[in-house]
């Protein structure tokens, strides 16, 4: 890859995590502290070749770190979350929160408990600069110098991964997020919608996306209720619905994480400002019950319908 083809920081972040299996592997590592190949395979029902491929990519992307261990006199390898991966925890919590608000499902999601106040709770997005919360898409302004934030390169995993048993697995709480985030084109198209792009031709010229891919994704987003179509049939406008606008929290954490951990070519970063304080927007999560900022070590998930309750604290390094 030449320098001019290097994707933006967000593009690199999406290459690293914008894949359904990758997100599931990380989620299991966070929630169940899975670190061994066989445990991911059994947990996810994923083929060994797909799993091996994703773990290899996660190691190459500095998201998993191989660590040898001894078992029955043999040396084996387990994989630990790196610091870069650990920093994804608020993104995973925000995904849980958004799915809880918007994705209908038959089985309950795990519940989040905030250990500081002791309540079963939900989270809301705040601005780390001024501590105000909640912050919504409408409270921030995003500026870009060039359209190159959308340089995501050609996705390596074109095929969609359909998990038919997702509905019955209480931990697979990503069904709709996967549609939006588990595919790199989807995410940049959604990002463009957050930047105010509304018309087919504008998406196309801004992103350089093939018309067939674009119309496919716009149709999917409309079906999911994330975008709504206005205007005449010949010149439709795609606007974010409340559900789509609310996805902003997830988007904000992807941008924040991506731009902190990856470096793109000059002038390809998005600059997000919190209007109320005028500072660069750094998202944080706070507890809806007590209003305090939450930290990774002070929350845990509880699986529903499991007696005795199973506590799932989020993994840390090591
Ligand atoms: Zn602020
Ligand atoms: Zn609390």
From TrEMBL:
Keywords per UniProt: DNA-binding, Transcription, Transcription regulation
Name of the molecule in the record: DNA-binding HxlR family transcriptional regulator
Pfam families: HxlR
Keyword DNA-binding: yes
GO molecular function: DNA binding
InterPro entries from the UniProt entry: HTH_HxlR, WH-like_DNA-bd_sf, WH_DNA-bd_sf
Entry annotated with the keyword DNA-binding: yes
Organism: Nonomuraea muscovyensis
Domain HTH hxlR-type positions: 6-107, 169-266
């Amino acid at each position: 890859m030449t320098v001019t083809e290097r994707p933006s920081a967000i593009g690199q972040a999406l290459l690293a995590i914008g894949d359904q299996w990758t997100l599931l592997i990380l989620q299991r590592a966070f929630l169940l502290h899975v670190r061994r190949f066989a445990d991911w395979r059994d947990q996810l029902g994923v083929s060994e070749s797909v799993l091996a491929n994703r773990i290899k990519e996660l190691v190459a992307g500095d998201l998993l770190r191989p660590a040898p261990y001894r078992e029955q006199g043999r040396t084996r390898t387990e994989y630990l979350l790196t610091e870069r991966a650990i920093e994804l925890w608020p993104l995973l919590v925000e995904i849980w929160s958004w799915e809880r608000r918007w994705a209908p499902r038959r089985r309950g999601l795990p519940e989040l408990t905030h250990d500081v106040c002791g309540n079963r709770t939900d989270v809301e997005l705040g601005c780390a600069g001024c501590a105000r919360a909640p912050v919504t898409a409408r409270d921030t302004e995003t500026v870009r110098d060039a359209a190159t934030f959308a340089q995501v390169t050609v996705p390596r995993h074109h095929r969609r991964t359909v998990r038919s048993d997702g509905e019955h697995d209480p931990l697979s709480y990503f069904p709709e997020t996967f549609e939006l985030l588990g595919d790199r084109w989807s995410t940049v198209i959604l990002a463009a919608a957050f930047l105010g792009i509304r018309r087919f031709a504008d998406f196309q010229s801004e992103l350089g996306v093939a018309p067939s891919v674009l119309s496919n994704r716009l149709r999917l987003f409309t079906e999911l209720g994330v975008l709504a179509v206005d205007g005449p049939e010949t010149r439709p406008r795609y606007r974010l619905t409340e559900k789509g606008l609310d996805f902003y929290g997830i988007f904000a954490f992807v941008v924040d994480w991506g731009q902190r951990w990856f470096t793109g070519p000059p002038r390809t970063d998005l600059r997000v400002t919190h209007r109320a304080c005028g500072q660069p927007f750094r998202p944080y999560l706070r507890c809806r019950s007590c209003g305090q900022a939450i930290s990774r070590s002070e929350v845990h998930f509880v699986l529903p319908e499991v007696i005795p309750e199973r506590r799932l604290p989020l993994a840390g390094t090591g």
